[in-house]
Amino acid sequence: MRLISxxxxxxxxxxxxxxxxxxxxxxxxxxxxRLRDEDGCALDELPAAVPLAGDNLRLSVNAFYVTxxxxxxxxxxxxxxxxxxxxxxxxxDALDEAGIDRADVTDVxxxxxxxxxxxxxxxxDGAEAFPGLERVWIGAGDTSVFTGRLAPIRDRVVPxxxxxxxxxxxxxxPTPGHTPGHTVYEVRSDAGHLLAWGDTVHxxxxxxxxxxxxxxxxxxxxQARAARAALLERLTQPxxxxxxxxxxxxxxxxxxxxxxxxxxEYLAPQIG
Length: 272
Fold this sequence. Notes:
272 residues, mainly beta, 8-stranded mixed β-sheet, single chain, 34% strand, 7-stranded mixed β-sheet
């Protein structure tokens, strides 16, 4: 996988016969007290290697657009204006910057139901953000999110209850734990495998080195920990890459074993 262009809100990678475009929705600040040890308790001490923005952890929020030049899939959609936070909701700017026409988006794959991943289906003005939308793939355990503001999308929801191909080169893989319907999308090209995940990892400077550390908002922390362990081990195989919603933007990297945990090698400089 190779970076071929970038801007303030996007980065485009060559991935064999596919292109992968990272789209920056912004960032959110969260207190370190959300991190949990194996007993579900807040961490006694945060390692010095974990940077803080003031007193908070700063989490990037990324989405990913994958295309073979004819068909495409958008993985996650950002927060739109739901959080009313000026640091979020930039995905529409990112799409414009990357030269992607929102009307061309027919398939959206949602990693899970939380606001910073699914809310961008509806634009700040209340209109559907993707007027050509035909299908929204989401884990069956998370389909209850399509009420209220998201109700107009409900008729196009495709629940994912088992591993299923959503096109010739993308497969949905259920990975419950963070939410009941948390789903990872495996993208295959002649250059390898890309696993696009949502909230498998929140704090990359900590949870690769110490993958047993979980997150307060993991619905089932034990299940989320087991899913993370399996995915990290899978990513150590040759020609495997990760695209993470909360990895530092643009959020695409390699994973290698390191001591009792793993090391992360980003494939492009961070977008500030």
